[in-house]
RNA sequence: GGAGGGAUGGCAGAGCGGUUGAAUGCACCGGUCUUGAAAACCGGCGUAGGCUAAUAACCUACCCAGGGUUCGAAUCCCUGUCCCUCCGCCA
């Protein structure tokens, strides 16, 4: 959520910045709601004050043994007036909140302007795509022969956009997960966490999935409103919801390996082949809760933490800065890491690292207190994949495939696979 | 699933429906005293919104959440959530 104070200031400027990312702000409506809200609030508080004063007077009179009947008569209609004022105020507040909670974050000044992913700006590349002297297979074909990767079976068990992994591929998947988690905890200083895979609406509102993007989520069919997490960013970032953290515990660096569930509504027909786009995939997520002054340093650092995994796995990739039009709802700045896929001869997203500044923190009232400062301040929140395990698996399979259909295992990963140098599929 | 108990400020813990944003203790901050420290004593010590030049004063809200009763609710009633204990079941 944007700062309400900002929305009382230079609205034209806010609208201009939001327009950069393709969001049209209805300035008039916002101003109207704001004025209305303020008037109703003043009015309501005036009535509340009057009620409080008179009630106190009645209490006093009663204590002195005076007759309170005439005093009661004076307040007879106050209750009704107050009730109707409260209802009007609540209505105005709700309208205002609906509008404001649907506004995306302002892009950071360094974010390139653009409409689609084609306008993203490449920051750098690492590694060189391999030259193959045999016909490259994609991960689907690599896994199909042996049956170690089975989409038909998953379709029978559940439906489209699921996978069954078996044998060496299942083990490789697990090895990658453990490897990533170990790097993030042992080398990059994140605290390993285990979190619920279902969260409530408050958590989803806090990170910005709700109210606008509910259709991307799997909602459980019960009254509690639980949803399956689309990313561990949701539970991890919400650690700080309704908290005032001591400055000494910052930066708080959290990581978790979880499955992620996404309905992929609106992407019918996109990436229907293979593991690229699934309803369920595993991810090692990094989250940092930091002081505002350090959030952009932390962003660069986290990008490095994600890059370290790709480098260790000898996977060529590039980093792009997302343009204003391609960024997520809550992000002020986002880097995507795109790994080379030889079967597609292109780079595909494997990690996304974002600084949300105080946008999520404001939605979830996540604050910290500096011992020298009187008032608590909003945290800055960052999240990044480190990395998406499923996509990483297929990147390893495809990039390190051999003519005989086997896959060589990058050296740092071998300890996680009992020391083997290649997997026969 | 059944039966009970509970939720109050950073923590602990009071609180007959009436001037209670809330006693008291601890912690914390400032001060006095002291060579210094401790102790003692004095003072301060929540969050958010409104109004403001103001992080001043004032006003409003908040004692798990949402409803209700009342002139007035931390206190009474209803619903929900969470926690604890016992029984049953279960990984």
Structure notes:
The chain is α+β, with helices and mostly antiparallel strands. It has 2 domains: 26-102, Helix Hairpins, CATH 1.10.287; 117-424, Bira Bifunctional Protein, Domain 2 (BirA Bifunctional Protein, domain 2, 2-Layer Sandwich), CATH 3.30.930.10. It contains 12 helices and 17 strands. It has helices spanning 11-20, 27-63, 69-74, 78-101, 139-144, 151-157, 167-187, 201-207, 233-237, 295-312, 359-364, 389-399, and strands spanning 121-126, 149-150, 164-165, 191-193, 198-199, 227-228, 243-246, 252-261, 280-290, 317-321, 333-341, 346-355, 366-369, 377-378, 380-388, 407-408, 422-423. A hairpin with a 4-residue loop joins strand 11 (333-341) and strand 12. Helix 2 runs antiparallel to helix 4 and helix 7 packs across helix 12. The protein starts with 10 loop residues before the first helix and ends with a strand. The relative contact order is 0.14. The mean pLDDT is 91. The structure holds one RNA strand of 91 nucleotides.
Question: What's the structural blueprint in terms of helices and strands?
Answer:
Blueprint (H helix, E strand, L loop, with lengths): L10 H10 L6 H37 L5 H6 L3 H24 L19 E6 L12 H6 L4 E2 H7 L6 E2 L1 H21 L3 E3 L4 E2 L1 H7 L19 E2 L4 H5 L5 E4 L5 E10 L18 E11 L4 H18 L4 E5 L11 E9 L4 E10 L3 H6 L1 E4 L7 E2 L1 E9 H11 L7 E2 L13 E2 L2
Parallel strand pairs: 4-8, 7-13
Antiparallel strand pairs: 1-10, 2-3, 5-6, 8-9, 9-15, 10-11, 11-12, 12-15, 13-14, 16-17
The chain binds one RNA strand of 91 nucleotides through helix 2 and helix 3.
